[in-house]
Amino acid sequence: MATGAIRIGLNAKRARTAWLFLAPSLLVLFAVALWPLGRTFLFSFTDAFLTEPDIYAYIGLENYFTLFEDPLWWQSVRNTLYFTVVSVSIETALGLAIALLLNAHMSGRGFMRAVILIPWSIPVVVSARMWQWMLHDQFGILNHVLKLMGVIDHGIAWTANPDLVMPVIIAVDVWITTPFMVLLILAGLQMLPKSIYEAASIDGVSEWRQFTALTLPLLAPSIAVAVLFRLLDALRMFDLSFVLSSNSDDTKTVSIYAREVLVNFQDMGVGSAASAAIFLMIAVVTAIYVTVFRLNRKLLGV
Amino acid sequence: MVRSATGRRLHRIAIYGLFAVVALYTLFPFYWMIASSLKSGQAIFDVTFLPDLKFNNYEAILSDGVFLRSLLNSLVVAASVVALSLGLAIAAAYALGRIDFRGRSPIMFLFLAVSMFPQIALLSGLFEMIRWLGLYNTLGSLIFAYMIFTLPFNIWVLTTFMRSLPRQIEEAAIMDGCSPLRIVRCIFLPMMGPALISTGLLAFIASWNEFLFALTFILTDENRTVPVAIALISGSSRYEFPYGAIMAASTIVTVPLIVMALLFQKYIVSGLTAGAVKG
């Protein structure tokens, strides 16, 4: 009885400690994320300008009407969705292939894993600049090699041609982020129990059957989580398009659109409306994805 | 399925062939960046696969005070973000990982949700907040803003790590009446080395590479970080075709990251997968 009372007292004290230890982090996240998010939504109903954000009046949904009447907004939505679907699909397929390759028990795979980490770890701006130079229409190495091979006569303007610029951006994104997929899928592969493969081999199950009947289903949750992270990343893509093709409407993403309205045009109202719309778009995509793939248990670990 | 000796050899050759393809695809752009940075003047426009080993571009970019300044700025921002986000996250992770209290699950969910916020959704509200705090156009604005993507992630990974430690290790200390701060410092910190290295490295890389906030919250050249500095080097200004300089600057920014990736590969990968697979 007495120890029970002590334990309860101790637990209450421990709970106080918990809140005390959490307070600084909660305060920071409130200041840096929750409050600004709320203010963004609030500004989206006002006529505020970035130069003087204190002076504003509520104008209802007008900013949203302005936004939804702008064809460029819808184009940037289409660009973003197209970019996301195509690049994440390619990255998943390629990431799976390379992960299976690196999972082979061979010497040199430690080195390969370090190599594959490099494109992911450097700034996107640097990758964009690097590829911009390789894809240069006059002096780029790619055009040079293609000319040597006799594939083309004149250099291709990879980032200036409206039909090519999106595929180019997707290709560079694949180069940058496939490593991320590889590493996550590889981690999933290494958690698979070896014994089932031994059993399957003894039963004479072909390697292809082992892959489709064992590896893929067991790996599906790992892949699903990796894809979710990539989806969230791709939907807010900013820097790659900004550096590689800053002024092209063909690769304008929603993030670029929103920042342009907010910073370049100083229109805090419409810019915030665009930001709020992006937030809702990403929240809906995430909710659907998590529900469809039943990831909530895996993500929350409960 | 037993393969013949030749079959096995072919298999090995095929795998090493594919290794080579992947390595070439991954590394050639870096080789080309470094090779281009080492060509001087007009030589960069001739496609030769071997570099000249001329360091003019490096001299030019390093004698440019603005670029050196932005390197220093990036270092200050990344180091401060690592220190601050780890300090806050260790305390939070102790609360979430070692103490059962009401409200634990909703708070974990809150951190997870915040880590999924698109940065652009916060831009106008954050702009206002940063001005209000008097941080606009200072490195402090970035250190503050980068908490969004480093803090929740660090808390998740460190919480998972703390929970995996056995219950008994702190029980004696609690019964002895040690203060929680002392328990964290003397019992948990020494055991957390690997987890701290992982999360610290990832926070460093993310801060070193961040672009959108760095572009928006910094107004003047002398306060910029390197990704923005490199993005803003353009033909219209001092250099006409400054690709040599851009490649040299890119190489300088990339080298520390490559060294880190090679030295700490295991830690980075375990941090990434802890965040994504378990977290």
Describe this entry's structure for a reader:
The longest helix of chain A has 42 residues, at 2-43. Chain A has a single domain (42-300), classed as MetI-like fold (Orthogonal Bundle), CATH 1.10.3720. Chain A is flat, with a radius of gyration of 25 Å. The model of chain A has no long low-confidence stretch (mean pLDDT 85). Chain A has helices at 2-43, 62-68, 71-102, 109-121, 124-134, 141-148, 165-191, 194-202, 207-235, 239-244, 254-264, 268-292, 296-300. Chain A is 75% helix and 0% strand. The two termini of chain A are 32 Å apart. By secondary structure, chain B is mostly helical. Chain B has two domains: 5-37; 56-278, Orthogonal Bundle (MetI-like fold), CATH 1.10.3720. The interface between A and B is large, with 103 and 96 residues. Chain A: One of its GO terms (biological process) is transmembrane transport. Chain A: This is Carbohydrate ABC transporter membrane protein 1 (CUT1 family).
Layout: helices, strands, pairs:
The complex is a heterodimer of chains A (302) and B (279).
Chain A: H1 2-43, H2 62-68, H3 71-102, H4 109-121, H5 124-134, H6 141-148, H7 165-191, H8 194-202, H9 207-235, H10 239-244, H11 254-264, H12 268-292, H13 296-300
Helix pairs in contact in A: 1-12, 2-12, 3-7, 3-9, 4-7, 7-9, 9-12, 11-12
Chain B: H1 5-37, H2 56-63, H3 65-98, H4 104-115, H5 123-132, H6 139-145, H7 147-163, H8 168-175, H9 180-188, H10 193-209, H11 212-217, H12 226-232, H13 243-263, H14 265-278
Helix pairs in contact in B: 1-13, 2-13, 3-6, 3-7, 3-10, 4-7, 7-10, 7-14, 10-14
Q: Any low-confidence stretches of chain A, pLDDT <50, length ≥5?
A: none
Total number of strands of chain A: 0
Please describe the biggest sheet of chain A, giving its number of strands, its sense, and whether it closes into a barrel.
none
Shape-level CATH architecture of chain A:
Orthogonal Bundle
Q: What CATH architecture of the largest domain in chain B do you see? A: Orthogonal Bundle
Using CB atoms under 8 Å apart, which protein chain pair has the greatest interface? A-B, 103 and 96 residues
- In helices, the fraction of residues of chain A equals over 70%
Shape of chain B: globular
What is the average per-residue confidence, as pLDDT of chain A, rounded to a whole number? Answer: 85
Mean pLDDT of chain B: 83
Order of helices and strands of chain A: HHHHHHHHHHHHH
Structural class category of chain A: mainly alpha
Number of domains of chain B: 2
Low-confidence blocks of residues of chain B: none
Can you write the helix and strand succession of chain B as a string?
HHHHHHHHHHHHHH
Please count the helical segments of chain A: 13
Strand content of chain A: under 5%
